[in-house]
Amino acid sequence: MPPSKPCMDLDLLEVGSWLDKGALDRESTILPRQQQSENQRQHSSAEPRKGYRSETTEPAGLSRQQYRNRHTKSEYQLLNSLTRDVVEAIQRQHPACFMKAEGGQQGSNCQGTRQPFEDKTICPQICLNPRLLGDSEVNPFAKRESHTKNTVIVYKILTIVTWLLAIIVSFYYTFNSPDDGVWPRRKIWKQNDHYHTAFRMNHIIASIYWIVLFVLQGGYIAHLFSGDVERVNSACAVGSHFILNNLFHFAFVMLFVRSLFGWAELIIILNFVNLSSLYFRHNQYARFIHQPVVSGPLAWTFVAIYWNGAIMVPHPHTLVARIFGNIFIWSILAYGLFFIVFYKDYTMGFNLSVLSAAIGVSQFFVQVIALQWIFAFTIMAVLFVATVVVAVPAAAGKTRQHDAERAPLLPEN
């Protein structure tokens, strides 16, 4: 047996049967197909044939660089684009390929120990096969801890474009009515004032809510251009949901001002699913992300389901409709207390208290002798007090350790 060499190289030969040349041709753009085939022929002595599991040991005198150069430039170019979380996913699925080779032995015959991934020198035959990668690279909503340079650029462009789109359409239809459509066409708040529903809002308070939210979202976007890698990765982690939220907001406004309330309700529900998924999957980021991207839009979307839904139903001003409104408005309190009690999320409590105040003020001026504005102000008061009870200790740094681990808000960096 040849003398044992230091544990330097990762196993490449044992997994040769995993090579998917079709996937390699689709994914690689550095070298043309002809040059890639030529490189494979030049290194045929080191590459096993497809479907063949080699038991050949690595020559003791072969350097690490020579060992790695058995693979084409296009393979390593694609390999280097993989993020750490993708590589760790491959490591979990194929741990044998990450065994350190000792004594020249390969693959499952290796007597070494599994080591944490420290660099990107792993088996290209596995990395370049999309069937083995799963959908983490394809799914834009997959949870990632790091992002490639190209991914960050894409997030910067799409986030800015969709954010501006949401702002422009909101401001335009606040002051202008649409010119097309067969149903009644009105400005955003003209639609709100035209229907005296149980969830009619005060347009001044609601407009201030959205202006502040848009400004805070601008601060979130600025973190995409930060020099702090951790901040950039955190901002990119919620980028896909934020982009989709902006598109849903654009679609909702376009439908709402044209009195297509049924389609608008569908869009609101879909966005509620999107933002709920965002909250429960990404609820441990700092305030600069959580408030403008997660809790602010989610609180509005939850209330907007009732706001638009009350307009959508026939005869929303009747006694029956208002009785149902008296019942459903308490769901705002239950929803807010859920996040305050279980997640210690004071931003959700504050956001919902502001929107409850918008409903209460509007209902007071519409019908003084009624229960809806009383209920709305009661909900606002309870949520605000609960928010203060949670926010003050958190700001003073007196929250317990186990609560801090469950809370979605981390201290500012």
TrEMBL record:
Biased composition (Basic and acidic residues): 40-56
One protein family per Pfam: DUF1774
Transmembrane segments: 153-175, 204-225, 237-257, 263-280, 292-313, 319-343, 350-369, 375-396
InterPro entries xref list: DUF1774_fun
Domain of life: Eukaryota
Region (Disordered) location: 30-69
Record keywords: Membrane, Transmembrane, Transmembrane helix
Protein name: ATP synthase F0
